[in-house]
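**Paired protein data**
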Amino acid sequence: QLQASGGGLVQAGGSLRLSCAASARYAVGWFRQAPGKEREFVSAVDWGGGNIYYSDSVKGRSTISRDNARNTVYLQMNSLKSEDTAVYYCAARLGLGSRRSYEYNYWGQGTQVTVSS
């Protein structure tokens, strides 16, 4: 069972750390969906943390990591922009991380991130 948390209201240029409670057995991906837009890939990490993936839109501003002892995956987002405003979802799948949402079997409820300019 996935649980995403850590969203909130932040000013542009600020930072947030999202958390996803997920078993260490699974690769975890973060996706986001803004109003009126399709869900898009943000970042993913393999179950062991060996491979990490970022979208071009967040690369250089975000860091994904995992603490398998705590069954938690983190997404640290820095230098937030208004276009980062969205509901963020974490998802899980066995095997490797993926940029494709349809390859994930399990989804958590979203957490709202709002960046004010």
User: Anything to note?
Assistant: Residues 88 and 111 are 5 Å apart (CA to CA). The radius of gyration is 13 Å. The longest strand covers residues 86-93.
